[in-house]
Amino acid sequence: MTAAALLQPGDFGLVHSTSQTGQLIGAAEWLDELTQGHWSSADRASLYRHAFLVEAVDGNTVHAIEARPSGAGRATYRLDNPAILWSAGRLRDSTGQPVMLTTEQRQQIVAWAVAHIGAGYSWVAYLRQAAVRLHVPGAGAWLAHQVQASGQFICSQYTDAAYQAAGVHLFRDGRAPYDVAPSDLADLLG
């Protein structure tokens, strides 16, 4: 059975690029990719650049909630889209332990996402993430404060925050809070 066949509310999807990727997002992602050590354009082209949460599955239509430059909102994706990497049935935390979501956790993830529809997009998060990854002193606290104080997220932070709201901590590797890129989420899917 494919991961897409197991898809449920609370799972997430990843895509390499989005139609909304503009020059500013592209430049910010390029900076983030370089700070992660992805130096060649071929290496960077293979990275996932957008994450979204599954709200509901209706046949072949996936109803999603995602952070985007216009503010967090709803979108739809096709379940059979081969370009989407789904978390269903393959999610492990950063220690390699399988993540099995309960029905209650799935409901909490979706409820958090719904409650945060309209949350702003954090352009500055890319710069702060780069500072964290370049080991600038105090950058981790600076990033956490910025997200918590503003309530603004990039897509991967939004996804991770929804999981944390349900008590699911995907990253147990000592990273700074909110230091998560779509490619980091992809790493959890093997």
Key phrases:
190 residues; alpha+beta; 37% helix; 7 helices; 5 strands
Q: If you had to describe this structure to a student in words, what would you say it looks like?
A:
With 190 residues, the protein is α+β, with helices and mostly antiparallel strands. It has helices at 23-35, 41-45, 103-115, 124-133, 139-150, 155-165, 182-187, and strands at 12-15, 50-58, 61-66, 73-78, 85-86. It has a 5-stranded antiparallel beta sheet. The protein is globular and about 50 Å long. The model is unreliable at 38-45 (pLDDT under 50).
- Unreliable stretches (pLDDT < 50, length at least 5) are 38-45
Beta content comes to: 5-15%
How many helical elements? 7
Structural class based on helices, strands and sheet pairing? alpha+beta
Which bin fits the share of residues in helices? 25-40%
What is the helix/strand order? EHHEEEEHHHHH
Beta strands, count:
5
Strand order of the largest sheet: 4-3-2-1-5
The profile of the biggest β sheet is: 5 strands, antiparallel
Q: What's the shape?
A: globular
Distance between the termini: 17 Å
